[in-house]
Each structure stands twice: as C-alpha cells, then as structure tokens.
Amino acid sequence: MTAPQNVSAPRDLRRGLLIALSIAAVVLVASTITTGILLFGMLGQRPAAAPAVSASPSPTATREPQTVHGIPVSARDTALEFGTWVAEPWVDGETRLFAPMSNPSKTQAVSIFYDVTAYDAKGRILDRTLGSADLLPGGEGVFSSSSLRAEPDDIAEIVIEQTRISATASPYTGEIGEPQVTADRESGAVDFVIPSSLSPDLDRPWVDVIALVDGEIIGQCEAVTAEGARPFTGKCYLQPTAKGVAEVPENHFMTLPENAEVRAFLRVELELE
Asked: With a threshold of 0.90, does the pTM exceed it?
C-alpha cells in the first residue's frame, strides 16, 4: 500500500490558524484596554464651570390670606412685597385686583409674571388671568391684574402665584425723584409731577396713581405722560375701588375723604433676560 503524501499539510494549516487566532486575540485585548482607558479618561473629565450667575431675589414666605369681599386672597412665594389687596367693583361678574407693591432688593431690578386664579369651594378653577410687575431696585408701584370672569358668590379663594422672574442689575442710571401730587378732593382729579434723571430716556411711560386710607387703596387711575417729558407730568381722575367709601358724583369721579393719601408711581417697563 502506498503511504499518503504531504501528511504535514493539515498540521501546518492548523498551526497557522492557531497563530492567526492568537494574534487576533492579542490585538482585540489591546484594543479593548485602550478603549477602556480612553473612555475612563473621557468620563473622568469634568466640563468647564459655567460662569457664575447672580442670585435672584429670594421669594418671601406665603403671607396669611387677606379678605376681599369675604374671599381669601393670598400671594404665594413671590420676590415682591405686597400691601393690602382690594378689588375693583364687580361688573357683570368681573373684577380686577390691586395692591401697593415694592421690591425689597436694593441691588436688582425685577420683572415678574403672575397667575391670578379664582377657585370654587371644591378647589376647581373658575377663571385664571395674568398679572405682571417691573420694579427697579428698591422701587415701589401698583400691582393690578387683568379681569377675572367669575361670579363673586361662586369664588371661595383667589391665589396670586409667581410664575416667572428675571432679575439683574438695573438697566438704568440715575433715579426717580419724589413725586409731587395735587388732588382735588371734590372731583378726584389728580395732577402729578415726577422728577427723573433716569438714563436712557423712557418713551412715554405710564404713571399709576392711587388714593389710600390706612394703607388700603380706595381709588386708582393711570395716565400716560408726554413723549420725551422731563420731568414726567400728567393728570388722571381717580375711580373708586370696591373698598372705597367715598361719594361718587354724577361725573363718575370720586370725592376723597380728608384722611386720604394720594401717591403717584412711575411705571418702568423692563426687558430683562
């Protein structure tokens, strides 16, 4: 019988395959280790710190509700401070809320938006409207909401909630001087002069005027000033609020009681980031 030829060929082939597989395994292990080292390095790196952002004014604690028309009204977690709330007379089931307001921060101007919500006795929303406020550092003004469309007998609670706030250093230099106010107590007509050294100039800003007795608003009005005016001057006629006790003449203005204080506030609109 003739012996088989080239017996070593299968062995050489197997040996070559084993060597190739060994080399591939080494390469795979090395690649895995390298990838692991790179991944560990990438995970271990921290992004550069973001630039520091100045803190917004801290919200004040929720105040005890005040009662307006027998309805609890509360302002929740807001950076502003509010005085006594009042409501404009109900007309066809609608009302607007008013309150003196101030910015307790002496370093930051604030632009704030609010939801004003009326709830029924079961906690269901009857209507929701908006309010906003722009105040310079340490500034004062008048908060007013849009009208709530709900019958007063159906409202169990009204809540004012801060929804968005922007705060930064004042975009203006200069200051607002002490307003000079002259009121005709028989008609409720108010003339005002507000000195200002604010720069840049304000374009025809509005002025809010309120009459108060013991810190409670009994009348309010607003007027736009002349373009480019310096100081800001104007005139408006006070309208009674729901808490007003003054006699209302036929001309629909109001008679001011002797102990009424009349104040004017320059309304500054801010465009903060």
From this structure: no
